[in-house]
Amino acid sequence: MTYFENINRIQYEGANSTNPLAFKFYNPEEKINGKTMEELLRFGVAYWHTLTADGSDPFGNATMIRPWNKFQGMDLAKARVEASFEFFEKINAPFFCFHDFDIAPEGTTLSETYKNLDQIVAMIKEYMSTSKTKLLWNTANAFTHPRFVHGAATSCNADVYAYAAAKVKKGLEIGKELGADNYVFWGGREGYETLLNTDMKLELDNLGRFFHMAVDYAKEIEFTGQFLIEPKPKEPTTHQYDFDVATGLAFLQKYDLQDDFKFNIEANHATLAGHTFEHELRVARINGMLGSVDANQGNPLLGWDTDEFPTDLYTTTLAMYEILKNGGLGKGGLNFDAKVRRGSFEPEDLFYSHIAGMDSFAIGLKVAQKLIDDNVLESLISERYQSYTEGIGLDIVEGNTDLHKLEAYALQLGEIKNKSGREERLKSIINQYLINVSSGVLV
Questions:
Q1: Which residues, 6+ apart, have CB-to-CB distance to 246 below 8 Å?
Q2: Considering 49, 99, 279, 354, which one is annotated as catalytic?
Q3: Global pTM?
Q4: Is residue 99 flagged as an active site residue?
Q5: What integer pLDDT is reported at residue 443 of this predicted model?
Q6: Which residues of the chain are under the pLDDT cut of 50?
Q7: Active site residue: 49, 100, 102, 337, which one?
Q8: CB burial class (10 A; 0-12, 13-18, 19+) of residue 95?
Q9: Does residue 354 have an active-site annotation?
Q10: Which residues have CB under 8 Å from 407's CB, separation 6+?
Q11: pLDDT for 38
């Protein structure tokens, strides 16, 4: 069965194309610094937003028109697999991602849930055998069902803890079966609503124990995917333990997990934490912890996770700058954890949205690489911190001083003169590169 019968494979047609179903800037085969765009960007499709989202929100019912919605239960799950691989092929996606309940319905018992998953995983594996699209990462949904009302690995109920562990065990087995490059932990309910009824130390200790058990089991079954933690500060819980990269890093270091995990950083989660996307990427990068990215953006007029497709070129440029300075994403990728707007309910909108996101990151990639090639930001940063390359500054950096020496140096200083940070100049330079590179003009 064909689910997107009016859509052909999306092709690159260039910036002057007026075809809405064509890439304008994303050319998978174009090489940037020796690697193709496809190799550098490693785009992934989010199964949940693309195949299962129905457009409902707290104030309205479902709006999405989907050809597979005429089915139910396992028949619906199978139809979604068929539709997904048709979509992957037509959008030319190298990767996809899913939660366990995205691909198969939960049964009345855990054993029945396992049977449903096994049947759909076998079907996905068969489709993958003839498809270029691979599994970027999978994960377990341990937040939707009412049993997780108090959390999963941080639940006050040991039975829930055990149930969550069983789901992760199964998820790791599925990841190995399908050759996943990563496994993600998103602690949607791992946090608290009020400290008045919370044993924070016990919850955090239990979470650390949970992750160690996952690491041990991955070694046992020889699952070689990278483990990723996805930070988020709030929503659904008031305060989540993986608030941002810095908080997550402190947690990993405390529980001696820093060698086994990296971060999957979502743009919209960064803004909810009061950070920019590039800030979270930078914190992960300079600590050697940048693993993968959930590519989306939030609405600055709203205070929640809107998961919009990324179209802000300034942000995609600064994000790709961090990713390129990181040497790429390794096993990670750019997964579009983004959903079409509730009013964009026709099947074709799934293609328009992914094209927009892929083109936006392609522009960001080209501009970021040009900024690096021209040493634009690094030269200005080096100039700004020049005082640490000689004299007392060099002594500070090399650890050859103390408070006595610094005081003696400060006492003989005259007037201290600072230099401008040139923030506005830097932003104007980036604007210039954006315009010139995206229009094909050499800078």
A1: 283
A2: 99
A3: 0.96
A4: yes
A5: 43
A6: 442-443
A7: 102
A8: buried
A9: no
A10: none
A11: 98
